[in-house]
Design brief:
Elements (H helix, E strand, L loop, with lengths): L33 H32 L5 H6 L4 H18 L1 H12 L3 H13 L2
Length: about 130
């Protein structure tokens, strides 16, 4: 822990891709996308947890190098009103990221999107590579 993760791949210069694939997202389980949605949520949570663990380990190591043992201070800490409000706002944003797949599924259903349309956009993007 503590080392930065590899940077994300960047598109080839001059290539542009749609910001959102059109069409319904593909499903891999025969339950109208419910299992796929849960899998997407678990994956999003796993990514969030790893990022937090990495940052926390780095912070603790930096503080330890400075001679500061933070374990007791963390346990005793209580946020004030403004900090609690900021945390509540962050929690709402976090929930939005985690459960985004449900919002996307709703939007796709309202727009009448199909899996075939989604795959057409993905195929076009890969054909441009």
């Amino acid at each position: 822990m503590g080392e930065s993760t590899a940077p994300q791949a960047q598109p080839v210069e001059g290539r542009t891709f749609p910001t959102t694939a059109r069409g319904a997202r593909p499903t891999f389980f025969d339950d109208d996308g419910a299992t796929d949605a849960v899998l997407a949520i678990v994956t999003a949570l796993a990514a969030e947890v790893w990022a937090l663990r990495e940052r926390q380990a780095t912070l603790e190591a930096v503080l330890a190098q400075a001679g500061i043992d933070v374990a007791a201070a963390i346990e005793a800490y209580r946020p004030d009103g403004d900090q609690a409000a900021a945390r509540a706002a962050e929690a709402a944003a976090y929930a939005g990221r985690v459960y985004r797949v449900f919002e996307e599924m709703r939007e796709e259903a309202l727009a009448g999107e199909t899996q075939d349309r989604y795959l057409q956009v993905v195929d076009r993007a890969f054909a441009e590579l």
